[in-house]
Amino acid sequence: MVFSLAMRLSSFVNLAMLILVSASTCASVALGVMAFSSSVAQASSFEAANNTVNEGSVISAEKQNQSVNFKRDEKINVAVAANFAKPLKSIAEQFTELTGIEVAVTVSSSGTLYAQIQHGASFDVFLSADRARPQALVDNNLVHHGNLVNYAKGKLAFVYAGDLSRESFSEISSKKSSERNCEQIARSSTGETTAQINVQLTDCLSKQLVQLMENPQNKVAIANPKLAPYGDAAQQTLQNLSLWQQFLPHRVMGKNVLQTLQFYTTGSVKGAFVAYSLALDLPADLSSNLPSKFNSVVNTKSADAVTVIVPVPETLYQPIIQSLVVNSKTVATLSPNLFEPLPIKNAAAPVDEPIHNDNVEPTRAFRLSDASGVSSPSLFVQYLMSQGVQHSLIEWGYEPTIASGVGN
Protein backbone atom coordinates (compact mmCIF):
# COMPACT_ATOMS: atom_id res chain seq x y z
CA MET A 1 0.00 0.00 0.00
CA VAL A 2 2.85 2.30 0.79
CA PHE A 3 4.41 1.39 -2.54
CA SER A 4 1.19 2.28 -4.37
CA LEU A 5 0.98 5.59 -2.55
CA ALA A 6 4.57 6.40 -3.52
CA MET A 7 3.89 5.61 -7.16
CA ARG A 8 0.89 7.92 -7.20
CA LEU A 9 2.91 10.72 -5.56
CA SER A 10 5.67 10.30 -8.13
CA SER A 11 3.18 10.53 -10.99
CA PHE A 12 1.70 13.66 -9.48
CA VAL A 13 5.16 15.30 -9.22
CA ASN A 14 5.98 14.40 -12.83
CA LEU A 15 2.70 15.86 -13.99
CA ALA A 16 3.34 19.07 -12.06
CA MET A 17 6.82 19.34 -13.55
CA LEU A 18 5.44 18.81 -17.03
CA ILE A 19 2.92 21.59 -16.51
CA LEU A 20 5.67 23.93 -15.28
CA VAL A 21 7.92 23.15 -18.26
CA SER A 22 5.06 23.75 -20.67
CA ALA A 23 4.27 27.08 -19.06
CA SER A 24 7.91 28.15 -19.24
CA THR A 25 8.09 27.23 -22.91
CA CYS A 26 4.98 29.26 -23.72
CA ALA A 27 6.37 32.21 -21.80
CA SER A 28 9.61 31.99 -23.76
CA VAL A 29 7.74 31.87 -27.02
CA ALA A 30 5.64 34.82 -25.92
CA LEU A 31 8.76 36.78 -24.96
CA GLY A 32 10.31 35.92 -28.30
CA VAL A 33 7.31 37.30 -30.13
CA MET A 34 7.39 40.48 -28.04
CA ALA A 35 11.07 40.98 -28.78
CA PHE A 36 10.52 40.48 -32.48
CA SER A 37 7.60 42.84 -32.47
CA SER A 38 9.71 45.43 -30.67
CA SER A 39 12.44 45.07 -33.27
CA VAL A 40 9.94 45.61 -36.04
CA ALA A 41 8.58 48.64 -34.28
CA GLN A 42 12.10 49.96 -33.76
CA ALA A 43 12.93 49.39 -37.41
CA SER A 44 9.74 51.12 -38.46
CA SER A 45 10.52 53.99 -36.11
CA PHE A 46 14.11 54.26 -37.49
CA GLU A 47 12.82 54.19 -41.05
CA ALA A 48 10.32 56.92 -40.29
CA ALA A 49 13.00 59.00 -38.57
CA ASN A 50 15.35 58.41 -41.45
CA ASN A 51 12.72 59.57 -43.90
CA THR A 52 12.27 62.70 -41.81
CA VAL A 53 16.01 63.37 -41.84
CA ASN A 54 16.15 62.83 -45.57
CA GLU A 55 13.29 65.22 -46.11
CA GLY A 56 15.04 67.74 -43.84
CA SER A 57 18.27 67.27 -45.76
CA VAL A 58 16.51 67.97 -49.02
CA ILE A 59 14.96 71.11 -47.58
CA SER A 60 18.31 72.15 -46.12
CA ALA A 61 20.03 71.49 -49.44
CA GLU A 62 17.43 73.57 -51.21
CA LYS A 63 18.02 76.41 -48.77
CA GLN A 64 21.76 76.01 -49.17
CA ASN A 65 21.44 76.11 -52.93
CA GLN A 66 19.43 79.28 -52.58
CA SER A 67 22.10 80.84 -50.37
CA VAL A 68 24.81 79.88 -52.87
CA ASN A 69 23.19 82.37 -55.19
CA PHE A 70 24.29 85.08 -52.79
CA LYS A 71 27.39 83.77 -51.02
CA ARG A 72 30.22 81.39 -51.84
CA ASP A 73 31.71 79.49 -48.95
CA GLU A 74 35.18 79.50 -50.49
CA LYS A 75 38.65 80.83 -49.81
CA ILE A 76 41.30 82.22 -52.14
CA ASN A 77 44.97 82.95 -51.44
CA VAL A 78 46.28 86.29 -52.65
CA ALA A 79 49.96 87.32 -52.59
CA VAL A 80 50.59 91.06 -52.61
CA ALA A 81 53.61 93.33 -52.76
CA ALA A 82 54.19 95.16 -49.49
CA ASN A 83 53.33 98.62 -50.81
CA PHE A 84 49.78 97.58 -51.71
CA ALA A 85 49.03 95.57 -48.56
CA LYS A 86 46.86 98.18 -46.86
CA PRO A 87 44.60 98.96 -49.84
CA LEU A 88 44.26 95.26 -50.55
CA LYS A 89 43.11 94.55 -47.00
CA SER A 90 40.27 97.02 -47.39
CA ILE A 91 39.38 95.79 -50.87
CA ALA A 92 39.45 92.14 -49.74
CA GLU A 93 37.11 92.86 -46.82
CA GLN A 94 34.62 94.54 -49.14
CA PHE A 95 34.87 91.65 -51.59
CA THR A 96 34.26 89.06 -48.87
CA GLU A 97 31.27 90.96 -47.54
CA LEU A 98 29.78 91.09 -51.01
CA THR A 99 30.47 87.53 -52.15
CA GLY A 100 31.20 85.44 -49.05
CA ILE A 101 34.55 84.44 -50.57
CA GLU A 102 37.28 84.66 -47.93
CA VAL A 103 40.61 86.18 -48.96
CA ALA A 104 43.82 85.01 -47.26
CA VAL A 105 46.60 87.55 -47.87
CA THR A 106 50.37 86.98 -47.93
CA VAL A 107 52.54 90.12 -47.90
CA SER A 108 56.17 90.28 -49.02
CA SER A 109 58.39 91.85 -51.64
CA SER A 110 57.53 91.25 -55.27
CA GLY A 111 60.77 89.36 -55.85
CA THR A 112 60.19 87.03 -52.91
CA LEU A 113 56.62 86.24 -53.93
CA TYR A 114 57.70 85.70 -57.54
CA ALA A 115 60.34 83.18 -56.42
CA GLN A 116 57.78 81.36 -54.27
CA ILE A 117 55.39 81.01 -57.22
CA GLN A 118 58.21 79.69 -59.36
CA HIS A 119 58.73 76.98 -56.75
CA GLY A 120 55.06 76.02 -56.71
CA ALA A 121 53.45 78.28 -54.09
CA SER A 122 49.69 77.87 -54.33
CA PHE A 123 48.68 81.53 -54.59
CA ASP A 124 45.52 82.10 -56.60
CA VAL A 125 46.36 85.72 -57.45
CA PHE A 126 49.72 87.52 -57.36
CA LEU A 127 49.73 91.33 -57.13
CA SER A 128 53.21 92.59 -57.90
CA ALA A 129 54.63 96.10 -57.55
CA ASP A 130 55.87 95.91 -61.13
CA ARG A 131 54.93 94.37 -64.45
CA ALA A 132 58.22 92.56 -65.07
CA ARG A 133 57.65 89.66 -62.67
CA PRO A 134 54.05 88.84 -63.68
CA GLN A 135 55.20 89.10 -67.30
CA ALA A 136 58.04 86.69 -66.54
CA LEU A 137 55.52 84.14 -65.21
CA VAL A 138 53.66 84.43 -68.50
CA ASP A 139 56.84 84.19 -70.56
CA ASN A 140 57.88 81.06 -68.65
CA ASN A 141 54.47 79.46 -69.38
CA LEU A 142 53.62 79.26 -65.68
CA VAL A 143 50.40 81.24 -66.16
CA HIS A 144 48.12 81.90 -69.10
CA HIS A 145 48.96 85.06 -71.06
CA GLY A 146 45.35 86.23 -70.71
CA ASN A 147 45.66 86.31 -66.91
CA LEU A 148 47.97 89.36 -66.82
CA VAL A 149 46.39 92.71 -65.85
CA ASN A 150 47.76 96.14 -64.88
CA TYR A 151 45.87 97.17 -61.74
CA ALA A 152 47.53 100.37 -60.43
CA LYS A 153 50.23 102.96 -61.03
CA GLY A 154 52.44 103.67 -58.04
CA LYS A 155 54.38 106.77 -56.98
CA LEU A 156 57.70 107.13 -55.19
CA ALA A 157 58.25 109.53 -52.29
CA PHE A 158 61.16 110.60 -50.13
CA VAL A 159 60.39 111.15 -46.44
CA TYR A 160 62.71 112.68 -43.86
CA ALA A 161 62.69 114.38 -40.45
CA GLY A 162 62.54 118.16 -40.75
CA ASP A 163 65.57 118.83 -38.54
CA LEU A 164 68.42 117.08 -40.34
CA SER A 165 71.40 118.46 -38.44
CA ARG A 166 72.51 120.36 -35.35
CA GLU A 167 72.67 123.89 -36.70
CA SER A 168 71.63 126.89 -34.70
CA PHE A 169 67.98 127.74 -34.21
CA SER A 170 68.09 130.48 -36.86
CA GLU A 171 69.55 128.07 -39.41
CA ILE A 172 66.88 125.52 -38.52
CA SER A 173 64.14 128.11 -38.92
CA SER A 174 65.49 129.08 -42.32
CA LYS A 175 65.62 125.42 -43.31
CA LYS A 176 62.04 124.83 -42.20
CA SER A 177 60.97 127.73 -44.38
CA SER A 178 62.72 126.02 -47.28
CA GLU A 179 60.93 122.78 -46.45
CA ARG A 180 57.57 124.50 -46.56
CA ASN A 181 58.48 125.91 -49.93
CA CYS A 182 59.40 122.42 -51.06
CA GLU A 183 56.00 121.08 -50.06
CA GLN A 184 54.35 124.08 -51.68
CA ILE A 185 56.05 123.16 -54.92
CA ALA A 186 54.56 119.68 -54.78
CA ARG A 187 51.10 121.03 -54.03
CA SER A 188 51.35 124.00 -56.33
CA SER A 189 48.00 125.25 -57.59
CA THR A 190 49.47 128.05 -59.69
CA GLY A 191 49.43 128.13 -63.44
CA GLU A 192 52.79 126.37 -63.69
CA THR A 193 53.04 123.39 -65.99
CA THR A 194 53.82 119.89 -64.77
CA ALA A 195 57.25 120.16 -66.39
CA GLN A 196 58.03 123.37 -64.48
CA ILE A 197 56.90 121.87 -61.18
CA ASN A 198 59.02 118.76 -61.79
CA VAL A 199 62.12 120.88 -62.41
CA GLN A 200 61.64 122.77 -59.14
CA LEU A 201 60.81 119.61 -57.22
CA THR A 202 63.88 117.84 -58.60
CA ASP A 203 66.09 120.69 -57.46
CA CYS A 204 64.45 120.69 -54.02
CA LEU A 205 64.88 116.92 -53.57
CA SER A 206 68.51 117.05 -54.66
CA LYS A 207 69.32 119.80 -52.14
CA GLN A 208 67.62 117.95 -49.29
CA LEU A 209 69.53 114.75 -50.04
CA VAL A 210 72.86 116.55 -50.27
CA GLN A 211 72.15 118.32 -47.00
CA LEU A 212 71.28 115.06 -45.29
CA MET A 213 74.39 113.28 -46.53
CA GLU A 214 76.72 116.04 -45.35
CA ASN A 215 76.57 114.33 -41.96
CA PRO A 216 78.41 110.97 -42.19
CA GLN A 217 76.24 109.54 -39.41
CA ASN A 218 72.96 110.10 -41.23
CA LYS A 219 71.49 107.03 -42.87
CA VAL A 220 68.96 106.75 -45.68
CA ALA A 221 66.86 103.68 -46.36
CA ILE A 222 65.72 102.18 -49.63
CA ALA A 223 64.10 98.84 -50.40
CA ASN A 224 66.30 96.20 -52.00
CA PRO A 225 66.35 97.15 -55.72
CA LYS A 226 66.71 93.48 -56.67
CA LEU A 227 63.52 92.49 -54.84
CA ALA A 228 61.34 95.58 -54.62
CA PRO A 229 60.34 97.77 -57.59
CA TYR A 230 60.16 100.82 -55.32
CA GLY A 231 63.77 100.16 -54.34
CA ASP A 232 64.67 100.00 -58.01
CA ALA A 233 62.87 103.31 -58.59
CA ALA A 234 64.80 104.84 -55.69
CA GLN A 235 68.10 103.70 -57.18
CA GLN A 236 67.11 105.15 -60.56
CA THR A 237 66.26 108.44 -58.85
CA LEU A 238 69.60 108.71 -57.07
CA GLN A 239 71.48 107.80 -60.24
CA ASN A 240 69.59 110.40 -62.27
CA LEU A 241 70.42 112.98 -59.59
CA SER A 242 74.10 111.90 -59.81
CA LEU A 243 74.01 111.07 -56.09
CA TRP A 244 74.25 107.27 -56.13
CA GLN A 245 77.93 107.02 -55.24
CA GLN A 246 77.59 109.69 -52.58
CA PHE A 247 74.59 107.82 -51.19
CA LEU A 248 76.23 104.39 -50.81
CA PRO A 249 78.00 105.06 -47.46
CA HIS A 250 74.63 106.16 -46.02
CA ARG A 251 72.59 103.28 -47.41
CA VAL A 252 70.38 101.04 -45.29
CA MET A 253 68.45 98.46 -47.27
CA GLY A 254 65.07 96.94 -46.40
CA LYS A 255 63.59 93.74 -47.78
CA ASN A 256 60.54 95.67 -48.96
CA VAL A 257 59.04 99.14 -48.64
CA LEU A 258 57.24 98.30 -45.40
CA GLN A 259 60.50 97.42 -43.69
CA THR A 260 62.12 100.47 -45.29
CA LEU A 261 59.43 102.69 -43.82
CA GLN A 262 59.85 100.97 -40.45
CA PHE A 263 63.54 101.93 -40.44
CA TYR A 264 62.42 105.54 -40.64
CA THR A 265 59.55 105.43 -38.14
CA THR A 266 61.74 103.73 -35.53
CA GLY A 267 64.52 106.28 -35.93
CA SER A 268 67.10 103.93 -37.43
CA VAL A 269 67.48 106.24 -40.45
CA LYS A 270 66.96 109.94 -41.07
CA GLY A 271 65.25 109.54 -44.44
CA ALA A 272 63.74 106.87 -46.67
CA PHE A 273 62.49 106.29 -50.19
CA VAL A 274 59.08 104.63 -49.91
CA ALA A 275 55.81 104.26 -51.75
CA TYR A 276 53.89 107.53 -51.72
CA SER A 277 50.83 105.59 -50.55
CA LEU A 278 52.69 104.55 -47.38
CA ALA A 279 54.01 108.04 -46.75
CA LEU A 280 50.45 109.36 -46.60
CA ASP A 281 49.90 107.42 -43.36
CA LEU A 282 52.84 108.96 -41.54
CA PRO A 283 52.03 111.33 -38.65
CA ALA A 284 53.11 114.90 -39.27
CA ASP A 285 54.79 115.20 -35.85
CA LEU A 286 57.22 112.39 -35.15
CA SER A 287 58.52 113.71 -31.82
CA SER A 288 55.87 111.86 -29.81
CA ASN A 289 56.22 108.63 -31.78
CA LEU A 290 59.94 108.17 -32.19
CA PRO A 291 62.21 106.50 -29.62
CA SER A 292 64.61 108.49 -27.49
CA LYS A 293 67.61 107.68 -29.66
CA PHE A 294 65.96 109.53 -32.53
CA ASN A 295 65.02 112.52 -30.40
CA SER A 296 68.60 112.73 -29.20
CA VAL A 297 69.62 113.41 -32.80
CA VAL A 298 66.66 115.61 -33.65
CA ASN A 299 66.74 118.65 -31.40
CA THR A 300 63.05 118.72 -30.49
CA LYS A 301 63.64 121.50 -27.96
CA SER A 302 64.43 123.94 -30.71
CA ALA A 303 62.29 122.42 -33.44
CA ASP A 304 59.77 119.64 -33.72
CA ALA A 305 60.70 116.48 -35.61
CA VAL A 306 58.39 117.07 -38.52
CA THR A 307 58.08 114.55 -41.32
CA VAL A 308 58.53 116.10 -44.73
CA ILE A 309 57.10 114.18 -47.69
CA VAL A 310 58.61 114.98 -51.05
CA PRO A 311 56.89 113.31 -54.00
CA VAL A 312 59.67 112.20 -56.32
CA PRO A 313 59.17 113.64 -59.82
CA GLU A 314 58.18 110.84 -62.17
CA THR A 315 60.81 112.07 -64.62
CA LEU A 316 63.46 110.56 -62.32
CA TYR A 317 62.35 106.92 -62.55
CA GLN A 318 60.55 104.54 -64.85
CA PRO A 319 56.76 104.39 -64.34
CA ILE A 320 55.80 101.98 -61.59
CA ILE A 321 53.07 100.01 -63.33
CA GLN A 322 51.80 97.39 -60.90
CA SER A 323 50.45 94.22 -62.49
CA LEU A 324 48.78 91.05 -61.32
CA VAL A 325 48.30 87.55 -62.61
CA VAL A 326 45.73 84.90 -61.90
CA ASN A 327 48.05 82.01 -61.09
CA SER A 328 46.66 79.41 -63.50
CA LYS A 329 47.54 77.97 -66.87
CA THR A 330 43.84 78.14 -67.71
CA VAL A 331 42.59 81.48 -68.94
CA ALA A 332 40.74 83.47 -66.29
CA THR A 333 37.28 84.91 -66.87
CA LEU A 334 37.95 88.62 -66.58
CA SER A 335 35.38 89.96 -69.02
CA PRO A 336 32.63 91.00 -68.92
CA ASN A 337 33.14 92.55 -65.52
CA LEU A 338 30.19 91.38 -63.42
CA PHE A 339 30.73 94.19 -60.93
CA GLU A 340 29.87 96.82 -63.50
CA PRO A 341 26.18 97.67 -64.07
CA LEU A 342 24.76 94.87 -66.20
CA PRO A 343 22.00 95.28 -68.81
CA ILE A 344 18.72 93.64 -67.89
CA LYS A 345 17.84 91.04 -70.50
CA ASN A 346 14.72 89.89 -68.69
CA ALA A 347 12.16 92.64 -68.28
CA ALA A 348 10.88 90.92 -65.14
CA ALA A 349 14.30 91.06 -63.45
CA PRO A 350 14.57 93.44 -60.50
CA VAL A 351 15.97 96.89 -61.17
CA ASP A 352 18.24 98.12 -58.39
CA GLU A 353 18.24 101.76 -59.41
CA PRO A 354 15.42 103.78 -60.93
CA ILE A 355 15.78 104.69 -64.55
CA HIS A 356 15.15 108.35 -65.23
CA ASN A 357 15.82 108.29 -68.94
CA ASP A 358 13.75 106.07 -71.19
CA ASN A 359 16.57 106.00 -73.72
CA VAL A 360 18.96 104.42 -71.19
CA GLU A 361 19.01 100.63 -71.11
CA PRO A 362 17.87 99.34 -67.68
CA THR A 363 20.70 97.90 -65.61
CA ARG A 364 21.12 96.11 -62.31
CA ALA A 365 23.93 95.66 -59.84
CA PHE A 366 26.12 92.61 -59.21
CA ARG A 367 24.49 89.31 -58.27
CA LEU A 368 26.57 86.24 -57.47
CA SER A 369 24.05 84.08 -59.30
CA ASP A 370 25.35 85.67 -62.52
CA ALA A 371 28.82 84.33 -61.75
CA SER A 372 28.03 80.67 -62.35
CA GLY A 373 31.09 79.12 -63.93
CA VAL A 374 33.35 82.06 -63.02
CA SER A 375 36.16 81.09 -60.65
CA SER A 376 36.58 82.93 -57.37
CA PRO A 377 40.07 84.27 -58.31
CA SER A 378 38.59 85.66 -61.52
CA LEU A 379 35.80 87.31 -59.56
CA PHE A 380 38.31 88.89 -57.20
CA VAL A 381 40.26 90.41 -60.09
CA GLN A 382 37.04 91.64 -61.67
CA TYR A 383 36.15 93.38 -58.41
CA LEU A 384 39.60 94.98 -58.14
CA MET A 385 39.30 96.23 -61.71
CA SER A 386 35.76 97.56 -61.37
CA GLN A 387 35.32 101.30 -61.84
CA GLY A 388 34.40 102.00 -58.23
CA VAL A 389 37.44 100.21 -56.78
CA GLN A 390 39.79 101.67 -59.38
CA HIS A 391 38.61 105.17 -58.58
CA SER A 392 39.16 104.56 -54.85
CA LEU A 393 42.86 103.89 -55.49
CA ILE A 394 43.40 107.65 -55.75
CA GLU A 395 42.65 107.96 -52.03
CA TRP A 396 45.39 105.41 -51.32
CA GLY A 397 48.03 107.35 -53.27
CA TYR A 398 47.82 105.41 -56.54
CA GLU A 399 46.56 106.16 -60.01
CA PRO A 400 44.14 103.83 -61.83
CA THR A 401 45.77 102.19 -64.82
CA ILE A 402 42.62 102.21 -66.94
CA ALA A 403 39.50 104.30 -67.32
CA SER A 404 37.11 101.47 -66.53
CA GLY A 405 36.85 97.70 -66.28
CA VAL A 406 39.51 95.11 -66.98
CA GLY A 407 42.15 96.06 -69.53
CA ASN A 408 45.81 95.91 -70.40
From TrEMBL:
It comes from the Bacteria. GO terms for biological process: molybdate ion transport. Keywords: Metal-binding, Signal. Residues 1-27 form the signal peptide. GO terms for molecular function: metal ion binding; molybdate ion binding. Pfam families: SBP_bac_11. Belongs to the bacterial solute-binding protein ModA family. PANTHER family: MOLYBDATE-BINDING PERIPLASMIC PROTEIN (PTHR30632), TUNGSTATE_MOLYBDATE_CHROMATE-BINDING PROTEIN MODA (PTHR30632:SF14). This is Molybdate-binding protein.
